[in-house]
């Protein structure tokens, strides 16, 4: 079992006086940062905030730390070092990718997108219709919000070059079968682009095992700095047109990051791996098993919250009713706008969010007006039982 007290000792936010008594339930918008990342960021700014890769010591150390972050994160995710790159955000990374596909594809070829996605993995691809690329929408079940793989099969043919979908939605939260979906796409000759932003905070995935050609997530939601992280298979990455400086065309990890890297934040990302290894050492398991420790702890806390929501006739739960098949991101629709409920919960020490969360298309598909929105209650493995009880008590009071 996860030692949640040990976990919380690694996050300074839990020792911060101004946050005492506040239960954090907006982790899907951005997580607390672990001490390991903060230490690396502080050291970089104190000792190595110079242009990296020059011949003097401070510069060499800075460059080595940036390389270390890429190497160790790639290994954690089950990929090759040069297949991992950093960018300003996942949204920006996706826009750059879309420009590369725009150049590679021809009018009449197709891309499949979903209406379950956060707009970051939908909007950039839909804009390619302006150049004659056919955009096909894989629609959710309007009753459940679920993406059914059999519906994807009817959209696939030899003209489809790319299938874009989320590992899990930031409001539906059901974990989609990435391996199955990728196998269907590959059988039709298409690549896959998976938005892992809402999944990765709940256990870093083995991207190599999932089989996705492109996998994206955000470090600031996985206990790190504000960076977008992308893995792309070498064969695809070297086929797509270079989007960076022409002289970087032979470097895979630079091809899709035209903006200069944030040296300090890239280096600090190694702290996320420090944290995973710290957890593994404390629990006596291999780092690959930390994923399961996180998921098991979250599921045990999630089910009572789901049962509570299901037991109320004034709340509509989005997504599955069982914890095993979803992330601990619980979006509910009530007879009041989500932001109003979030505002009232703040008076009871609950930090949560309300709105559409850039998931406008799926809310509309479910018959929810985006301006009404939902209340979103999202947590991660550092949440404890007392905070779940505090949340349920607060919900009783505001509802």
TrEMBL record:
InterPro entries: Aminotrans_V_dom, PyrdxlP-dep_Trfase, PyrdxlP-dep_Trfase_major, PyrdxlP-dep_Trfase_small. Keywords: Pyridoxal phosphate, Transferase. One of its GO terms (molecular function) is cysteine desulfurase activity. Residues 24-391 form the Aminotransferase class V domain. Its EC number is 2.8.1.7. This is Cysteine desulfurase.
